Amino acid sequence: MPSSSVAVDTELDTVLLKPIDSSTREIKSLDGLWRFAPASDNLAEPWKSVLPGDLECPVPASYNDIFLLPSLRNHVGKVWYQRTVHIPRGWKDQRIFLRLDAATHEGEVYVGDKKIASHVGGYTPFEADLTEHVKPGEAVRVTVGVDNILTHETVPPGEVVTNAVGKKEQKYFHDFFNYAGLARSVRLCCAPKNRVEDITVTTDVRGSAGAVEYKLELEGKGRAEAELLDAEDKVVGKASGLEGLIDVANAKLWQPGAAYLYSLRIRLYASDTSDELVDEYSIPVGIRTVKVSGKKFLINDKPFYFRGFGKHEDTPVKGKGHDDAWMVHDFELMRWIGANSFRTSHYPYAEDVMDYADKHGWVVIGETAAVGLNLGIISGITGGPKRKTFAPDFANDNTQAALRKGIEELLQRDKNHPSVVMWSITNEPDSSEEGSRPFFEPLVKRARELDPTRPLTYANVTFCTLEKDILADLFDVIGLNRYYGWYEFTGNLEIAEQKLEAELLAWEAKHQKPMIMFEYGVDTVTGLHSVHAQPWSEEYQVEYYEMYHRVFDRVDAVIGEQAWNFADFGTGVGIFRVDGNRKGVFTRDRRPKAAAHTFRKRWTGK
Predict the structure, then answer these.
(1) Over the range 195-226, which residues count as b (16 or more CB within 10 Å of their CB) and which as e?
(2) Which pTM does this prediction carry?
(3) Which of 368, 434, 439, 603 has the most crowded CB, counting CB atoms within 10 A?
């Protein structure tokens, strides 16, 4: 991996420091019920008046499963959210802005009759600066439009078609439902006009000492002072200026399963000679190192084995809507089963999830929304002619630019989370197609420029075999998605075991890199039992996982197993899925299948 001392282009178009409450900042939640209406020919310029109708939609939540109207379940295009927002009168002379944690897949914000902001990308935040458009002490009408359309130039990609009865349908190339809306929190925020705009923290471990390096970006001017506080709020180190290094004697490290967080507090004063406090911002800091060495993945110079899952932000009724209760329960189930990690398949998860992982020692592989960049999968399912994926009419230069933006926004948002130890650039691309190399190589380079401290990976799909794949050498860790015994050699685990082991040993021999099985699993109907362990039964799921685990234990380069999937989830793939994807170790409402106990015994010994 490149040295962090190499000069690189790290300038970003958008810098979004997470809003917090502090002595100089304030947040007002706008979560709750918003007026709601789908776009229609009769709804022109809806931001200019109160939305018609009596629908109200909760925020955060996906709207698709909340209402009983089939037209909303499969809606294609925009929907509108609206509410009246009261600006606190104490916010005079402050920067006032609206923070939307996500709008899937494109959002636009109107204040009164004026469009203030827009953003493309359904899983990363954006802001609307209201400062010049509102007055403290007054109320204003806020309208948010959210468009769920996917095209071949969005990430993830899709296509809108007109069906036989003249209605628009959204086609997409990923195996999870296209939930849409305001699925994460919306907040009204204030911050000083002269303020800390961005913080980048990197850490190192030198013997028993830790090192915390920070870099600041300011809006306006001022004198910056930094303090590092331990978990008991005792100051353990100080520095001054826009860049600084704080040495921590006898540092307590952030460890998997045993998180320890310091707090870096930045105070901005009016000038070099003034003690007038202008802004204050604090960020949690976990001191730890990550690197790849040979066929090992090291956290704090100790080999780490990934035990866990690919997951989805998916629950009944709320769809991809973030919910703290579901989040904590999911983490408790993962703790019970003995997991230590997860991949944010197949998009950045809510910031609340990352914060929780930081505080509780979970290891996270952060993934972009680049899923579905593989038309070969679709032709394989449908039997239709194979189209090239990386071509002018599908994944073209504009698609690449959209993914570059997605990589930049993910790495910018999550760069300071100690729980995030690796970035996954894409899931199951057609890495055997000639055009995949010029498409992804500049993106890998960009990710390394932005973050030279974390390894990079991707998820390789089955038919892009060792002989055909042309991307693996770009990455530090090879991720594999394999379904021998399900999609191939269905029901024959003896042959599946031979094929799996032979392939893993071949990858190991060629690349001499660590490998993680990112996906392996079978669809399983809860309560279906068979003495013969036939496919779809709980017994078959158990035997399938036991077979994979025997193979993993025989291959040195395998440094992790992340089953697909943590829980059943909603999809839109017709006859190939019955009431969603049933590969979960838990049901969609989080009841354990028999395989959950298999994992618990392997991972905890209980």
Answers:
(1) bbbbbbbbbbbeeeebbbebebebbeebbbbb
(2) 0.94
(3) 368
